[in-house]
Amino acid sequence: MIRFVPRERTPLWLTLAVSVGAGVVALVLTAIPLALSGAPVLQAFLLMAQGAAGSGFAFAETLTRATPLIFTGLAAAVAFRAKLWNIGAEGQLYAGALATVALGAGLLELPPYLLVPIVLIGAALAGAALLLVPVLFKMRFGADEVVVTLLLNFVVLLFVQMMLEGPMKDEMALGWPQSAPVLDEAALPKLVSGLRLHGGLVLAIVCAIALHVLITRTVWGFRIRAVGENARAARYAGLPVGRAMALVGLLSGGLAGLAGASEVAGLKGYLTADLSPGFGYAGIVVATLANLSPLGVIPAAIFIAGVFVGADSMSRAIGVSNYLADLVVALSLLSVLVGGLLARFRIVLVRRETA
Amino acid sequence: MWAALDILTQANFWAATLRIATPLIFGVLGALLCERSGVLNLGIEGIFVAGAMSGWLAVYLGLPLWGGVVVAALVGALFGLIHGLLTVPLGLSQHVTGIGVTLLATSLAYFGYRVAFPNVATPPRIEPFPPLDVPLLRDVSFLGPVLGQQTAFTVLAFACVILLAVLLARTPLGLALRAVGDNPEAVEAQGLSVVGLRIGAVMAGSALMALGGAFLTLSAFNAFYFGMINGRGWVCIALTVFASWRPGKALLGALLFGALDAYQLRLQTITGGAVPSQIFLMLPYLFSIAALVLVARRADYPRALMKPYFKGQR
């Protein structure tokens, strides 16, 4: 008989091995549908690796793609730590992007050192406000936040389309539904000339470090973890569960909002309704791969971004659909979930007792 | 003003209500079957996509329409098996696993479609289920046109409501399924397998979800489009709470939602662009959220929902 015996503590190397192993297993499993489709498997993977990290330019592109994923990964990590199932990062990202355009595309004319922070704070607040609604519904009415956050994603996207076809439409854009461009004073600086890398990456890394410190070194971090481990015990121990949940909501929604600001003010320059190809949902995968560790989110986001960038480049070269990337991402999530069991439990073979 | 009320008297509106409600009936029945056994299945959105794609592809490749229905159900059950294995014996987070199943099913369906049709400008079509057009019913005023426009697939949905209601309320299997979602220890004490019952329920429920997807490609439309599910699965999860996990109320919830959706579509044409169309399109989602929030307080959740069960552990 096989028994799962809980481990007292998981060594760091094992946690890391599970995450890396999950990525490898996902790639191996992806080879099956890839082979069935008749594509050259090895060549496809080689082209993906080259496309993601084969040159400085390619890797810069991967880091650019990783930037929003770090933000949404952090958003999922902090929420899931407290067992607040925020699946609405996609909508919160768009709320942040809307706020960025609303504040940064001409409403305020200020020097960059004022306008950039104002835009970022506005975007974070917009994302946070959007998540506070489901958190309130959860605390007040006991409504499941998963469904509410998921459904709000569709509402927000429709709202964005409405704004882009109406009040926020750029009349100069030849009929395309897109917003006016953000002012130069609101734009995040480019990091290296000639590359698309922008200040959003630095901000994302700073956020990851700050969140790490908050969770591991502060009282509020302890409360967040306690609420996640056992909300009833936390309440019994007199912890302010409601306020801890509200804080988690603010942080998670705010981080997702920053993803939107970073994409608009750092990369695209204006808002369209196809700003995010599912960064919000991919953030859940990033956070799970990182075992909900804020610092782990950075490499996990780079891996997932590499898969997307690599698959795009491979798809252009040999015409295999880039939906392959989504397949790798989905399989990574399921692999790391199963692998996580190995980290949390010792698997022991028990001989059946003979009477 | 009268025009807005006049919509309710049109046979066309009621026919559309039934058409929009049908996939949701399957979805809510599937979700409530899973949840009654104690397992939340957020794979629903992806299983809808996989059911829509696989059922349609099977018919496109030459199977008869009912063959496509069976294929979709089998594909759904397969994803249910994955979700069941990960969440029941392994006890993994039902939330995150469900999202994983949705991502997996969606990406497999999209990838498969792209492999089968690398560069098509317009989606290939099939000959979908024909309208029923029952000889005697045809001549009945109002009811004739409303029901005559429906297909055999919608009849199947109504049959499933009755079957599931009877199964849950009147059979020993139904009793065991309800018990396993409320009190798995008691089921174990009866010598029944908690793991077996739960995995079976998730597989059957997922098969029903896949039928909801297949309805869209085999009956409502005649082709598969990317993004055609567009949150229908998530809506079903909300409607399941609204329906308090009862098949009869599930039918009611799906019909209400269908009516609202059909109504907003017609209201859009009446207002003639004075109100942005997105406002109307938001209504079904906002309605689902409102329905969930309103009933959440007194919702009678299956008591062991989302609680993994391990033999010999309490």
Short description:
Helix content of chain A is 71%, strand content 3%. With 355 residues, chain A is mainly α. Chain A is globular.
Explain this structure.
The complex is a heterodimer of chains A (355) and B (314). By secondary structure, chain A is an all-alpha fold. Chain A has a single domain, classed as ABC transporter involved in vitamin B12 uptake, BtuC, CATH 1.10.3470. Chain A has helices spanning 12-36, 41-53, 56-81, 89-104, 112-141, 145-165, 199-217, 219-229, 231-236, 241-268, 279-289, 294-318, 323-344, and strands spanning 2-6, 345-349. In chain A, helix 4 (89-104) crosses helix 10. Chain A is globular. The mean pLDDT of chain A is 92. In chain B, helix 3 runs antiparallel to helix 4 (65-87), helix 3 crosses helix 10 and helix 3 (44-60) crosses helix 11 (232-242). Chain B has a single domain (16-117, 148-296), classed as Orthogonal Bundle (ABC transporter involved in vitamin B12 uptake, BtuC), CATH 1.10.3470. Chain B is globular and about 65 Å long. With 314 residues, chain B is mainly α. Helix content of chain B is 70%, strand content 0%. Chain B has helices at 2-6, 11-36, 44-60, 65-87, 94-116, 143-148, 152-170, 172-182, 184-189, 194-220, 232-242, 247-271, 277-296. At the A-B interface, helix 6, helix 11 and helix 13 of A face helix 5, helix 11 and helix 13 of B.
